[in-house]
Amino acid sequence: MSESRQFCTFYLEGLFFGVEVDKVQEVIRHQQTTPVPLAPDVIGGLINLRGQIVAAIDLRRRLELPARPAGQAPMNVVVRSDDGAVSLLVDEIGDVVEVEEQDFERPPETLRGVGRELIRGAFKMKERLLLLLDTEQALRAA
Amino acid sequence: MSEMDDIIKEFLVESSDNLDQLDAGLVELEKDPSSPELLGSIFRAIHTVKGTSGVLGFPKLEAVAHGGENLLSKMRDGKLRLNTEIVTGLLQIVDAIREILRSVDATGAEGDGDYQAVIRTLAELLERETAKANHEEDGEPKLLGQILSENLDVPEDAIDEALAKQNAGDLRRIGEILVEQGTVSPGAVLDALKTQAVDAGSQVSASNIRVDVALLDKLMNLVGELVLARNQILQFTASQKDATFVGTAQRLNLITTELQEGVMKTRMQPIGNVWSKFPRVVRDLSVQFGKQVRIEMEGSETELDKTIIEAIKDPLTHIIRNSIDHGLEMPEARVQVGKPAEGTLTLRAFHEGGQVNIEISDDGKGIDVERVKQKAVERGQLTLEQAARLSEREALDLIFLPGVSTAQQVTNISGRGVGMDVVKTNIEKIGGTVDVHTVPKQGTTLKIKIPLTLAIIPALIATAGGERFAIPQVSLLELVRLEGDQAERGIENIQGAPVYRLRGHLLPLVYLNQQLGLSRSAGDEIANIVVLQADEHQFGLVVDEINDTEEIVVKPLSKQLKGIGCFAGATIMGDGRVALILDVLGIAQKANVVTEVRDRTAVDAGPRHTDVVAGRDAWLVFTVGGGRRMAIPLAIVSRLEEFERERVERSGTQMVVQYRGAIMPLIDIAERISSDSAGAGREKLQVVVYSVAGRSVGLVVEQIVDVVEQAVVVEHKEQDGMLLGSAVIQERVTDLLNLDALAKATTGQEMRA
Questions:
Q1: Could you say which of A33, A38, A43 has the minimum Cβ distance to residue B516?
Q2: Which domain CATH number covers B234?
Q3: N or C: which end of chain A has fewer CB within 10 A?
Q4: Number of domains in chain A
């Protein structure tokens, strides 16, 4: 018998990512961000989350993907961390999906670079692969 | 059971207050042993602890407190004279009680500490000191009995019965016996004990209540949110015309401000709350080291935010330990150098410019700067050459490096080289600064500056590169706006370093856009200069636009952003967007304002052997070739200019240049003094323009170094012409130019020409 787990999913440059549902505080639409000069460039800025100031990490930059096309507003996936809430900027939000533990596989050795660092593995879903994002690593910006 | 838990909890809270009073009281008593009020209040405090612990069933605690009480009751009855030994014994009792209470708080039990030794010491003391006097009964329980019968309608015969039991050899306290007899409830005994403790003292308790700090924190946060909402409404109001609405918004504004002040006040505590434990610390340490120390406190009523009070407690204790351990000398050594045997440690606190200043000074031997340097070199934190180059001030700052200590001997109190670095870090964490001043043989002063509160601060909102930034008002000195022609000419350059003359002094300018890597949005026609104070230095921060001042709520930055160093936090503006709060000191450091200028005051610290004191003045320092440094008083300088070599013409043998519609002679200093030319082989000449008898004269120099404000001591007087002499400026030998002689020589030459 295998256990099933729930993931909050989102898209980045056509890739399908997931983070454990219990790590996600909330998902919100595009917010105005305040850029932080001199910050590492993965920092997309600061957003006002109901009076709380939250740093936003641009996952495209973090994963070294091409920059988001102009005019496309990112969405916020706010995750909990030891250091308080942090927002992940993504292209689009997907559904919450339930996957079986047995469908998980670690990434192949051929995966190198930043991907190896941030992707813990993939769930083999029917139509596509759900990439499991290592949020702790992703938040370790700079 | 739960009633019992509540009672225990209350007992713990109350006792911890009592113990703090005891510490202070005992030390006070040592100075004034004859004060019956003091003795009375100390006795009551111990007695309450003893009585309560008996009722609640903490036998160890009771035994310890009983030991103390016995001694105190003899003293109160005048059968015992106070001495240092007794005070030490009593303080040990207080410590033991504290330890047991801590254990009760943590585990609910008394713990397995053994306090027999303490009790025995005290008993022996008691026996020895009262050897002459008779061993009297302890009449004290009657007091409790009286209260019980008067206030709580406890039948007198029940009390008499209990007393009879006691007299018959029952060792339990009267409250216990009564509780056991079922005459009174434990709560009633506690109340009686409290009455007993309070009686002589304060009616204050009636008008005070205890509030959980967490609740205050929550209130503070809510007020913070309210302030933000108020700001948003005010911004919206500006575009509204409805009189009722505008009026209501105004009222909301006022009420919010008042509420904010009120809530802030609830969190304010006098610094005396922390200081009150220092007499005890000082006493213990001075006994331990065999030193005589008197502690003096000024301004203990100065109020500070509770969180800040908490944060400075440990750093202050550490500084005091340091002062006593290696600041103050042994009594004999003090007498030898003509100081009173008793050293003085002074704590001062006062408000200034929205900040709290705390100064801790001792009249000890001062810090041996050479030894600090040596230590740092030994530890490999500095090379010998670096150490030699350090100014006195920089060398003193070395004591804040981890591992540096000037203690010859490592004691268990200090000298282990951990400490001052932690002190500095802790104080900087709350936005404060620490400074050391020391005078050999006269003592050391540590100056701490900390903000009043961390939560809500007034700030100036400025724009740079299209973004808003909040600048804490604490650092703000003034605003300067230059328009049109002024903006172009008002900002001058010293070798690429922009400066502005602010009332005759050169103010280094820092462009916020450049520092933060932002694009420049405004043109050159307007310059907005925000004059700021960083550390002890001023600089002008040039921003695109100055918006407004606002009360902002400081929110911390997340971990990912803490390393940048230019931001103190972030806040939410009226429109709901986030703005960054500038860390003025951080920006000054990034722009080298602080390190560079730090040298300026460096030499002031130690007076040198005086020959001629030229007074504290601003000096323009420059080089004239071959690394030779020279200085002239800044006051006579009218401008700093740069001329293309082609513009230099000759009038006879004199170099001249056309300047502002007149002919200005140029003097190449190097040429006059040696044979080299400072301007030789250069495309552009650096010229210092000054005026003599209404005429402008230009000095050709190699490079402008700095503007230095310090008292200059002329050490080598030279009478031969061009030089007044030499002085040490910024730790380097600098020649002072004799401008009169120079001018005479020039005009003479002109006449010949």
A1: A38
A2: 1.10.287
A3: N
A4: 1
